[in-house]
Each structure stands twice: as C-alpha cells, then as structure tokens.
Amino acid sequence: MSIKTIVAIVIAVLLTIIIMQNRDEVPFNILFTSMYASKLVVMAGVAIAAFVVGVIVGRPKKQKYDIEQYHDTMYNKNKTDTLSDEDRDYIS
Predict the structure, then answer these.
(1) Could you count the other beta carbons within 10 Å of the beta carbon of residue 28?
(2) pTM of this prediction?
(3) For the purposes of burial, counting CB atoms within 10 Å of the CB of 35, is it exposed (0-12), middle (13-18) or buried (19 or more)?
(4) Which of 66, 65, 49 has the alpha carbon at shortest distance from 57?
(5) What is the rounded distance in angstroms from the CA atom of residue 40 to the CA atom of residue 23?
C-alpha cells in the first residue's frame, strides 16, 4: 500500500467517526432561511462536496505541455546558422 492510500483511509475513518458523533439536530441559517437539519447530514454533504471539488481540481491535464518541443519549434534546433547579421558584424 502506498502512503497516499493509507492517508486516504485514515482520513475516511476519522471523518466517519466525527460525523457519527454529531448526529443531533440543530438550526442552520442559509441565506435568508432558517431550517433544522442534522449535523450528520450537513457534514456529510460538505465532505462529499469537498471530495468532488478535490477530484475535479486534482485530475491530471489531458495534454502535457512540452517546453522543449515548443522551444525547438520556435527556434528551429536543427538550424546551424542562428546568428543575426548584427551579431556577425559585432563578432567580425
């Protein structure tokens, strides 16, 4: 098992313990309304929303940016004569 898997399991267990300890019903003020809801439902909803946002933000890009290929296409790596006329005059 990798460290990432172990950390994910530990966080899931701790989150489950915390959510189960907070099952009482309390009033929540959301914008202009007040409603009674279980802390368990609210905390589970927030945890799921945070997980979804984390997955969306943490997913890898579809295409990697290759700086070497970009540089080669911009400056034509195979071209041997890269000095400008001004540079040639300065060297001469």
Answers:
(1) 14
(2) 0.45
(3) exposed
(4) 49
(5) 5
